[in-house]
């Protein structure tokens, strides 16, 4: 099935993760329109650029790309209301992020925030991340396995069967060294604090610091990707969830989806 996909992210439209997904999804026969931030918007959650005009440009020579001077949520809303004004896309894919978005990180993630925004407008949303070290400059090849996973998932069923209404499918792929043995696993979000986050310094400038939290519980998204498997978890968007959300996720993880 060929899908019309709105592809976005929070690392910027030129980031290697979104480039890898765009190339892989197009090679699989899907129609991909990139509507993504002009630059890095990590940690933006579902923030909107309210109170100011939104500047949007079409970069030359890069195909069907819209560069948005705003957040990932801005990008999705612009895409749905302008680029796809005549007919909504079949699905919004957000990613692939450089760095996992699991556990409590989903609350801050612009990658997840973009998918949540899509779901709140009634369009299936999938957030996709790869467990790479933060503050590094990954290359496109490090997203090969992630691209294969996304292509396989989108080819497994119709978008509205893949993503339960009122939710976002949050996909976290382990670090590339685990690619050969990674399995799809239905997980629950790790609910322990992900660590101590704060700002340190003497002023007027302060630096964000992070101290890791406790070891994640078995079966959670964090434990699964650290163990080398692919985490499929649910992010609720509203309080009116499909009663079969958990069962649907289990069936998806158990399905015979070949991504390698």
The N- and C-terminal alpha carbons lie at a distance of 19 Å
Q: What order do the strands of the largest sheet run in, or round the barrel if closed?
A: 3-4-2-1-5-6-7-11-8
Helix segment count? 7
DSSP strand count: 11
Integer average pLDDT? 89
Provide the succession of SSEs: EHEEEHEHEHHEEEEHEH
Task: Tell me roughly what share of residues is in helical segments.
Answer: 25-40%
- Poorly predicted regions are none
Residue share in β-strands: 15-25%
Main β-sheet, in a few words?
9 strands, mixed
**Backbone structural class:** alpha/beta
Radius of gyration: 17 Å
Principal-axis shape equals globular
Structure write-up:
The chain is an alpha/beta fold. Helix content is 25%, strand content 23%. It has helices spanning 16-27, 72-83, 110-120, 144-154, 159-162, 221-226, 245-254; strands at 4-8, 31-37, 56-57, 65-68, 91-98, 125-130, 167-173, 184-186, 195-200, 207-212, 230-236. The strands form two sheets. A nine-stranded mixed beta sheet has the order 3-4-2-1-5-6-7-11-8, sandwiched between helices. A two-stranded antiparallel sheet has the order 9-10. The chain is globular and about 45 Å long. The mean pLDDT is 89.
């Amino acid at each position: 099935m060929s899908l019309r996909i709105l592809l976005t992210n929070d690392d910027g439209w030129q980031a290697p993760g979104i480039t890898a997904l765009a190339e892989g999804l197009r090679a699989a026969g899907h129609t991909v329109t990139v509507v993504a931030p002009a630059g890095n918007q990590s940690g933006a959650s579902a923030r909107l650029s309210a109170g100011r005009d939104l500047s949007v440009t079409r970069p030359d020579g890069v195909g069907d790309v819209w560069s948005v001077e705003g957040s990932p949520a801005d990008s999705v809303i612009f895409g749905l209301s302008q680029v796809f004004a005549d007919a909504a896309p079949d699905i919004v894919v957000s990613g692939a992020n450089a760095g996992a978005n699991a556990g409590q990180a989903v609350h801050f993630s612009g990658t997840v925030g973009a998918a949540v925004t899509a779901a709140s407008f009634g369009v299936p949303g999938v957030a996709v991340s790869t467990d790479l070290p933060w503050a590094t400059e990954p290359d496109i090849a490090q997203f090969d396995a992630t691209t294969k996973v996304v292509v396989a998932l989108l080819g497994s069923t119709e978008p509205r069967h893949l993503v339960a209404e009122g939710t976002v499918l949050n996909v976290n792929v382990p670090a590339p060294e685990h690619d050969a043995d990674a399995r799809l696993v239905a997980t629950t979000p790790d609910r322990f604090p992900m660590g101590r986050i704060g700002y340190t310094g003497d002023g007027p400038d302060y630096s964000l610091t992070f101290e890791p939290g406790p070891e994640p519980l078995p079966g959670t998204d964090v434990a699964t990707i650290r163990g080398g498997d692919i985490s499929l978890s649910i992010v609720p968007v509203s309080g009116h969830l499909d009663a079969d959300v958990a069962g649907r996720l289990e069936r998806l993880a158990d399905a015979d989806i070949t991504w390698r």
